[in-house]
């Protein structure tokens, strides 16, 4: 420990004499409780008890004596009397600070500082609260219950639901309760057992919980809330069980089937925005469902399950009420109305009928079910009978949405095409890798190319018009600190999703994600679909005139989550003019033996979204048979209704004990990777998955996954995992599947990006001198004050949601919520998730300070015009936020420029002094800064400044290569290289002498190759020069066929020298050539070459793939280090005269991982560890036996190590095996058990001079191992 941590450590026994105990907490002292409550605010009492719930972190300061306790409570109460809202906000921020930092030396002082900050921004705070109420948001208190504690959390801001709007508009009577294990993860039977679940969940549900003197009892939960172990509790003080009375207010429910009843009642807890557009009884009717075919239980399928119709005129009213820009009317609205759940699809026929009835003044035949209506519901949408109301609730609406592949879908595509046709499989695998390459290349270009960077920034929530900050006006967004942080955050977020979920994006021109609806015209036939998409994916609210594309021909469709081969299917897309009014939704036919949505994982049309792909390279040859498992029969028990609340509690506990959806889905993915997606064991798991999905509605859980082989089948519960699952607690193997290939590529890039971003954390923020205006000192004091106020507001937002960086909140690329337990994102797939709330709150804060900036100049509206330059006289006093964000200051005054410059300078100055940087404040007056930059830029025009290429990285790298070659410490080596090339490699010398600057590039490459130990007996420096020439000529086995990328002319075809040329004046110079060369060497195309002839370069030699494997890997790492970081730390560095040659690379600790070995080799562990340490070059290695498996006569060994990133990666490679369980041998069970022998065979010490028998104490049965075989390489 001393050597590894470089610390002075001592372990000894210490007696701690701590006889003092805590005094009674404030809310448990009746006198103090009455003193707190007499001011009439339950919110104050809640927050005081919340502080006590943080344990010793707080109680060590306040509960050590009555004096400390009473003094702090008195201070809070006194502050509350003076200003209640400020005190409440200060206490909430104190709680967030405690959660963020875990320990605070002086909470009283922190509270006082927070109180002062909140007081200074009181007006802004009140404006924000009022704005949130207008938009339908509500604050609800939340309690997290674990087996050992009850944690009171700061009230959450969430979109209201029907229950809150009806019974608790203030949020004072309701608690959102979440049950968690002590590691903040959901309670699972496999981890904590039924006893702890019953003790933790059962006690709270049956007896209720007391919070700040109030008793709360269980009431219900939405479907997704229950899946996440959450629910609502309601205040039951002064009343006996009133749950039944509350439920009756929301409708008549059938309680014979408790699980289904809970699901129906859960609709009242779904987050949805209540529309201000009334829906009177005469405006809607009920039409028949479309039924046909028969399932396995001889029941007819409902083709229109969950789909209703809405007239275009009413849809326009809903869109306007939702503040969707004029001209945009979504084709689908996901709604809740009374007891109705589902979607409403636009149908022009409704308006046509209304016009016909009105024109001819026709009477309604049935007033209870009129014909001339705005909305037509279907019986399949009505889940329960609810009281009459005129308010419809909107959960979500359709819009252009990109889509991506994921692990389950890639697993299906990989294995189905392999079963159908090897040529199709090769085509699909190559295409997925190509999509991966395109995505990664886009990420790198986003960080360095102005056009790509500007396009990516334009996709972010609109607060700044990045097109206004144009390159023509002198802006370089890739070099500006704030915008660069946004770009890096977006790249980090995308790459993380690729690594963890294999989310490979499909270009929006070839795939979309869309709601599914039914064809109301009846023109589509079975096997056909209609899909029309908005061309511009970034136009989230497209108008009627937005460009669209109608897809025709074969398409590939699936629904998340998919699991078995039949869940992804091929269809034929057709063009029907009668359906042209539907955009960004996929239309399914109403005919056929079975609804097409039901064929895909048993989905329906009540809000399910589908992936639609028309990329021909990803198609199947044919459809696999869809699975159709019989639904469990639920016997209704009328007696259940006698004690509904108790039955609800029993089922809730049973659900948590037996919930296995995630476990089963993961087991299927792992088992199918080992044994094949069509294996018997996978079909068995898929059957249980179907039962698990229905469990919340049927109450019948599936049987547990088998943990031992049964009936000749392997265990369903895996105990070995592929590497892409990242299960370090169990033995893993290198999966040869497409999922495994993509995972390893993404993991390598993720590590590169993480290292690159770490290098920049300590860099100072450098302000743009062009934006510093003379006279800004007049506004600098106010600027610092406003900056501190703005920073405090954003800190509150970030701390409330546990977001790490400002860039994450600004961009919406939130990687994780630290120190938070949240279920917001899963709330019935509502659009009102965490990202939505954070985006709204950030936009409100940004807009508020933008208004404050222009206040002294006559107000925001008077100083700005909308983006089209129209007059602003007709702007309403309460303009929608979206309209305000589209306005800019066209002609700023000198004072405005001075103030904007002061805000900019103050922000960047303060950022360099702070640990947590908030840079967006500098760009609140972005339009004024743009005018300042434009003026300075045009003043510089005509000067001798170099022409901007659009890629600053290339320019900086070009200068770096020149400086490196001509530095005085390298001069002798540089001249020596040129001499050797002229003397020994004439064909390279011809190019070097002809092209000025090529020698500098070759010198950099030589130093780089030596730095990575690439030069050896088989691979010489002139081989690298030959590859460089091939790249310049585009003469590799697979040509790029892009003349723009050829930077050399073939000199072998000319006997005479055509004169001196140069590569320095190329677009991007050395920098672009070197990065393009690294990129090609590290590409999958280059890695697939088995043989590379050098004839085109002038040599008669050739290179094999084994000779360039390390070159390709080093080039890949270097390219991404440079492009992701923008720094050249991984290139050769200019050395000082006396610089010592030593390895200064940082050492890292590997996450401990598990391997499996035969039990008989336990005595060899020491030798094996020493052998691995020597081979991998790690600094420290420990192998410890974890447990024995007597069934297979194997042992589990946990491995810990410390070393450089390269050595740790080498260690994992040495222990990695690539079994292929789907081929060879007759029985898969013994093959699986031989995986331990495969590991041992790979890591055991082998003596070159000794026989195999003496190389190891135990012989390996190679015949058996060969039945598994190492899977073929990637």
Please characterize this protein's 3D structure.
By secondary structure, this protein is α+β, with helices and mostly antiparallel strands. Among the domains are: 26-248, no CATH class; 267-397; 769-940, no CATH class; 975-1125, no CATH class; 1145-1268, 2-Layer Sandwich (Alpha-Beta Plaits). The protein is built from 45 helices and 34 strands. The strands form 9 sheets. Strands 7-15-12-13-11-14-8 form a 7-stranded mixed β-sheet, covered by helices on one side. Helix 25 packs across helix 30. The chain is globular, with a radius of gyration of 34 Å.
Which key phrases capture this entry?
1274 residues, seven-stranded mixed β-sheet, six-stranded mixed β-sheet, 45 helices, RNA binding, transferase, RNA-directed RNA polymerase, nucleotidyltransferase, RDRP_core
Describe the structure concisely.
With 1274 residues, this protein is an alpha+beta fold. It has 45 helices and 34 strands.
- Residue-averaged pLDDT: 86
Helix amount, in percent?
40-55%
- Measured on Cα atoms, how large is the radius of gyration? 34 Å
> Into which percentage range does the β-strand content fall?
5-15%
Q: What composes the largest sheet?
A: 7 strands, mixed
Number of strands: 34
CA-based shape: globular
Question: Strand order of the main beta sheet, please?
Answer: 7-15-12-13-11-14-8
Structural class: alpha+beta
pLDDT below 50 for ≥5 consecutive residues: which ranges? 818-829, 869-882, 943-948, 1137-1142, 1249-1256
Output the number of helix runs.
45
Q: What gap, in angstroms, lies between the N and C termini?
A: 40 Å
InterPro entries: DUF7636 (IPR056053), DUF7752 (IPR056654), RDRP (IPR007855), RDRP_C_head (IPR058752), RDRP_core (IPR057596)
Protein name: RNA-dependent RNA polymerase
Catalytic activity: RNA(n) + a ribonucleoside 5'-triphosphate = RNA(n+1) + diphosphate
GO cellular component, one term: nuclear RNA-directed RNA polymerase complex
